[in-house]
């Protein structure tokens, strides 16, 4: 059986400066995960004996993250109680979206004063990954080049995107530069895993109200400042109740 938590501290450090702060995206409604999200927010759905967000915090601690900004909206009280009672070893700050769900880009904008002025990690709270030869967060940090990057996305080949129903997200050049998004009717070789490093430079000229991080990505791609790094381990798109069971079977089979 693969235990994602057991193998957190045995991988070599590839170098680089790990961001001190992570933005954990945890405010979504979890509609595709119903009925499991009828009484709990999606980050608290249990996979392999632990809540999804607990798997994320395992990775953040192992990767050297010191502080996490977590946005909340759906069943926010329940999620905040879990963060207070179950998360340790990392400073947690809540970005409150109870009044309005801001989506990914709007959530980052609302939390910008909490995030600070340095490059920061962004992690979706509803995915699960197992590291390969090196820790994925530390690999991103080692690859990050602030002089030429505004966004560095952790990606997985479409063929290894377990339980992912989409057709891929991006195309990469040989040097990792993102050269385009998937075009209608065509597959794209790489899927975004929900883990990335962003520069605060991208938080500019935003629209009012909710919007997607895609706005920031498109600007970075157009400027030639968006890159991807291919994940060397396992990744699971745990977006539906069926995917929960399938993921647990794969982890049990090793």
Question: What distinguishing features does this structure have?
Answer:
3-stranded mixed sheet, 26% helix, 254 residues, 7 helices, 7-stranded mixed sheet, globular, alpha/beta, single chain
What does this structure look like?
The protein has a seven-stranded mixed sheet with strand order 5-4-1-6-12-8-13, with helices on both faces. Strands 7-14-9 form a three-stranded mixed sheet. A two-stranded antiparallel ribbon has the order 2-3. It is globular. 26% of the residues lie in helices and 25% in strands. The chain has helices at residues 52-63, 76-86, 103-110, 112-115, 136-143, 214-222, 241-253; strands at residues 21-25, 46-47, 50-51, 67-72, 91-96, 120-124, 127-130, 151-157, 161-162, 170-172, 178-181, 190-198, 226-230, 234-237. The protein has 254 residues and is an alpha/beta fold.
